[in-house]
Specification:
about 250 residues, mainly alpha, MetI-like fold, 10 helices, about 85% helix
């Protein structure tokens, strides 16, 4: 059943590739603006063989790890604090909800002014994107813990830290993991945006920007394919982690 499901998922991409190939066989598409499948495949192989592609993937992933770790950690902390303290929630939540309505990409011009166009600016930009999903879902998960669980823990005279570690966080874990999954996918999208806009050494976005400037659209297409593939793997890995933890919890 799982193999059949996987094959169904591959059906549309394979049809799109077939349509792409047929368009060039029929000379409908122009190679000036849209490279052929054969040329794109050759470019992918050349970039992989030279090590340039892996270098750029590694550079982007490093920025994602740094930004995600910073933003998700702060988001988890804020979400837990808002979930545990009604006074803190009343103080912070209205501002949090207002600020998170602003698209992260809208903060980019201000971040460039505040932090420049170097590595710190990219990491902070990614961290901002990772922060909001983690904080929102953690807050929702902690607030959603059944009151009965807390009352049982209080009956056994659990301290606050022990109750947080053994009752609240495990019960809120599904929502927390959902937030982390959204944070990670957002981080991966934002690193490409940051690399396209800001000066950078390495990175998939930088590779695509150079390809655009030199009118090498085959490089741009390779970058787009890599972005999709890496994002898919990240999302699938988090889903597997969620399923495994849910199975252990059951």
């Amino acid at each position: 059943m799982s193999r059949l499901k996987a094959l169904r998922g591959l059906a549309l991409p394979l049809l799109l590739i077939a349509a792409w190939w047929l368009a060039f066989r029929a000379e409908i598409a122009s190679t000036l603006v849209f490279p052929s499948p054969a040329r794109t495949e050759a470019t992918f192989a050349a970039l992989l063989k030279s090590g340039e592609l892996l270098f750029n993937i590694r550079a982007s992933l490093l920025r994602v790890v740094e930004g995600f770790a910073l933003g998700a950690s702060l988001g988890l902390l804020l979400g837990i604090l808002m979930g545990l303290s009604k006074a803190f929630e009343r103080l912070v939540l209205p501002t949090f909800n207002a600020v998170r309505q602003v698209p992260i990409i809208g903060w980019l011009p201000m971040m460039i002014v505040w932090f420049g166009i170097g590595e710190p600016s990219k990491v902070i930009f990614i961290a901002a994107g990772a922060f909001f999903p983690a904080a929102f879902n953690t807050h929702r998960g902690v607030k959603g813990v059944a009151r009965e669980y807390i009352e049982v823990a209080q009956a056994f005279e659990c301290g606050k830290l022990r109750m947080l570690a053994t009752v609240i966080l495990p019960a809120a874990l599904p929502s927390i993991l959902t937030g982390l999954r959204f944070s990670l996918s957002t981080s991966w999208m934002l690193v490409v945006a940051a690399e396209l806009v800001m000066l950078t050494a390495g990175g998939i976005g930088n590779m695509m920007a150079q390809g655009r400037e030199l009118f090498q659209m085959d490089i741009v297409l390779v970058g787009m394919a890599v972005i999709g593939a890496v994002g898919f793997v990240m999302n699938h890995a988090i889903k597997l982690l969620e399923a495994r933890l849910a199975t252990r919890g059951a």
